[in-house]
Amino acid sequence: MSYRKHLDRINKTIDEGGSLSHHFDELRNSIVPWRESLRVILIYIIIGATWILFSDRLLSIFFADPQTYQSMQTIKGWVYVLLSGSVFYFMIRNRLQLFKAATDRIYQGYLELDESHDRLSKAETELRERIEQLEYYQKALKDSQLQYDLSVAGANDGFWTWDLITGVYKTSTLIKPEFGYTESEQADIDTMEKWRTFVHPEDLVFGVKVIDSYIENGEGIYENIFRVRAKDGAYRWILSRGKAVRNEDGKAESFAGSHTDITQQLQLQENLKLEQGLVESISREAPISIIVCDKNGLITKFNQYSESIFGYTQGELVGENAFDFLGDDVQKSELVDMLPGLMNGEPLANAELKVIAKDGSEKTMLFSNTYVWKDGYIESLVFIGVDITERKTMEEKLEILAYKDILTDLPNMTKFREELSYALKNNSNKQFAAIYIDIDDFKLVNDTMGHHAGDMLISLFADELLRFAKPEDRVYRSGGDEFVLTLGSFSDDGELRERLSELMDVIRRPWVYNDHKFLISSSIGVAVYPDHGDTLETLMQNADTALSYAKTGGKSRYLIYNDNMKDKTWSFIQLTSDLRMALERDEFYLVYQPQYNLVDGSLVGFEALIRWIHPQKGLIYPMDFIPFAEETGLIDKIEDWVLETTLRQSSGWRSGGFGDIKISINISANTLGKSSWTNKVDRHLSEWNDYSGVVFEITETAVIGDMEESIKALKTLHDMGIHIALDDFGTGYSSLTYLQMLPIDIIKLDKSFVWSLDLDDNKSFIVKTVIDLAHRLGIKVVAEGVETEKQLIFLKDSGCDLAQGYYFSKPLDASSVDALLKAGVKR
To answer: Which end of the chain is more exposed for a tag (fewer CB within 10 A), N or C?
Structure first.
């Protein structure tokens, strides 16, 4: 076969996708170098011999002329060269074409070999990756098997299998700690019948029906809940889930699944239902407004109590913006600004908000908030509010009463101190004068013309002062026949004196009563800020000093404080020294003012009151030395003496058979807030076995000084069994908030309340309201300063619990108290 045919067969095999190895082997075997060389030589010899033998003969035949013959010989040689060269050209070209074709095929083979090598390399890489992946999966399978084994051992689930053909049943449920069985005890349960002996009888019939129905024609997942008996006899709820393996006919051959102990979940669900019921009951029945809003402030829930307060139904308000119902635009703006902060968890605590009800009325609500959380984020805002409208109205009335003088309707000294303190704090560079005014010989008016005339004079005097005052001036009634005027409308000392002269002229105008004209005069003391003091206490003290000088110097004049007025300062120093000596010389003693039950008239206790017998000045009342004692720090030693003396006296009464008698002790505002004070009280009380009848009386100002420490101290005392009374109620701020914040058992109505009952019947409703509100808070009420039968009757009718005052008895010494207790007098 020729080389060409070999190549054609190879190309054909390639086109047909056949194997080339056989054809290349035949082609390789057919190529013999020596044979090919010999073939070329033989062809050359044959062509040359043939040309030599026949070319000369032919020339001799056609060309007889020797010259022509000779020329043709040369041409013959060239023809031979041309013919032999052509033959060799075609032979060599054919062989080279075959060689090129073979070379091209070899080159193509090399290219295909390279491609095959690349494919083999990729295949090797993929095979290596698959081997690595297989090794990874094998390791993961081992880890998974280990985790599975650990999960089975530690999980709440137990597993079960049931071969429906052989009837063999296996489970891992009973060896869980909750059930308490051993592995050997569980291994004995190898059939469904044995397993069913552990199922609660009440659940068995239904359970068998459910599983049989699933085996018969069930699809998907089998599921049932029933109780299984633990080793201790208790039953636990399990959730049984499983799936059946069916043959081609749909018949179940095996069954497997899990048992999950859901006892705790069901208990939690039951508790949650109870809690939800409690929450719903509170939301429905409790007198608390509950408003739920979404993130944008839109109402989503509105409880029944809110409906009763605001007049809207839940259907009317769901979807409405809660802030649209606020009555105060400032509050509305503030809350809208606060909304992002509220959504970030910032609390809204005890915020007083004005809310407009459906009928247009304004309600004052005390709101706090909480949140509904979902996936760690705030889902809703819950506003919880209490209607304090009535309380705020009453507080406003009480505030007016606390800051207003009943007779003149002028601001009282509490208001003076508050406003002057504010002015000193915020207007430190503005000059003003504090003017103390005292009506001269006012007692003569009361004594000669009666208290009614005195009240008319006080009212007239107040009106004249108001007419004199300019817009920047303020008029206050200090009490009795004393007034205070703050003068801000002057530029220098000369103008101040001109205004003071004008004031004296106003005061000296004739006063007409019962068609008679009377001339009145006043003494005036002046202290200028900041020349005569830069604190409230200093200004008041120096103005009072100037007033004392004006009165002692002839009255009916004004004096401006100067540095020569040091006598009162010296008196202060002397009094301080005398107080120190009084403790050493035992010059103090106690008197006891009886307190009576207004229901049955029985004697229930006493208020201990301190007195001072000065060697030169005689009897000094507490109001004249207690402030000095507080200012100098001597109050601590005086209070120690009062506590020790009172507790010893109370113990004596109790040992004498009067165990129900209570004893009230006044506590200084300066000591209540001190951290060591409760320790001191505890030290005193520890010396006595029974101090349940002890009552500590505090004032509002004592609490306000340091609210946090005061509350802490009072709660400590209350926990020790000490009763707490709020003294002089009505002379300070009189906020009902204090009554809720403090552990108060008793409030003592200040005598100014009680005395107002004789002056103005219109004020009586305030006293009655205070009593009613106190009773609602579980607080008893003691009326101080009862002096008339009219006052007593009103207090009884108003439900006041206890009373004290000169109507019953003046303060008594210890021996008089002993006699009173033995007599058992009722009033």
So the answer is: N
Dihedral angle sign, alpha carbons of residues 67, 69, 72, 77: negative
Per DSSP bridges, beta strands 746-749 and 474-479 are: unpaired
586: closest CA among 672, 655, 644? 644
> Three-state SS across 226-282?
EEEECCCCCEEEEEEEEEEEECCCCCEEEEEEEEEECHHHHHHHHHHHHHHHHHHHH
DSSP string, 45-96: HHHHHHHHHHHHHHHHHH--SHHHHHHHHHHHHHHHHHHHHHHHHHHHHHHH
pLDDT tens track for 599-627: 999 999 999 999 999 998 899 988 888 87
pLDDT of 524: 94
How far is residue 273's CA from residue 268's CA, in Å, rounded to a whole number?
8
Query: Which residue's entry shows tokens 């505090």?
Result: 698
Q: How far apart are CA 760 and CA 386, in angstroms?
A: 34
- Going from the C-alpha of 466 to that of each of 102, 203, 320, 462, the distances in angstroms are 134, 91, 51, 6
pLDDT of 734 above 70: no
Kindly list the distances between the CA atom of residue 41 and the CA atoms of 88, 91, 206, in Å, as whole numbers in the listed order.
10, 12, 110
Q: Could you tell me the two tokens for 305?
A: 């109590």
- Cβ neighbours of residue 500 closer than 8 Å, sequence gap 6 or more: 435, 524, 526, 558, 560
Half-sphere exposure of 49 (CA within 13 A, CB side): 6
Q: Is the peptide bond before 530 cis (omega within 30 degrees of 0)?
A: yes
CA distances 269 to 202, 374, 786, Å, are 21, 18, 62
> Across all residues in the chain, what is the average pLDDT?
82
Cα 746 from Cα 723, distance rounded (Å): 8
Contact (CB, 8 A) for 801 and 784:
no
Contact 805, 749 (CB under 8 A): no
For residue 542, the Cα-to-chain-centroid distance in whole angstroms is 49
Q: Model confidence over 97-131: pLDDT tens digits?
A: 766 766 777 777 778 777 877 888 888 888 888 88
Strand residues in 133-263 grouped as ranges (E): 157-163, 169-171, 222-229, 235-246, 252-261
In this predicted structure, what is the pLDDT of residue 13? 62
Are the beta carbons of 360 and 312 closer than 8 angstroms? no
How many other C-beta atoms lie within 10 A of the C-beta of residue 776? 9
Q: Which three-class secondary structure state does DSSP give residue 470?
A: coil
Q: In 3D, which of 349, 353, 358, 342 has the Cα closest to residue 387?
A: 353
Return the residue matching tokens 């008594």.
812
Maximum CA extent, the chain: 202
699-719 as b/e: b if 16+ CB within 10 A: bbebbeeeeebbeebbebbbe
DSSP H helices, 294-344, are 304-310, 314-317, 329-343
pLDDT of residue 270: 82
Cα(802)–Cα(808) distance, rounded to whole angstroms?
A: 12
- Cα(411)–Cα(404) distance, rounded to whole angstroms? 4
Both tokens assigned to 614? 């000065």
Give the pLDDT score at 428: 64
Q: What is the pTM of this model?
A: 0.40
Half-sphere exposure of 345 (CA within 13 A, CB side): 4
Amino acid residing at 474: R
Going 614 to 619 to 622 to 623, the CA torsion angle's sign is: negative
**Residue 695 CA: distances (Å) to CA of 344, 605, 647, 667:** 47, 10, 11, 10
How far apart are the C-alpha atoms of 374 and 345, rounded to whole Å? Answer: 13
**Helical H runs in 635-720?**
635-655, 669-672, 677-685, 700-705, 707-719
Q: Are 449 and 538 contacting, i.e. CB atoms less than 8 angstroms apart? A: no
Read off the amino acid at residue 764. Answer: S
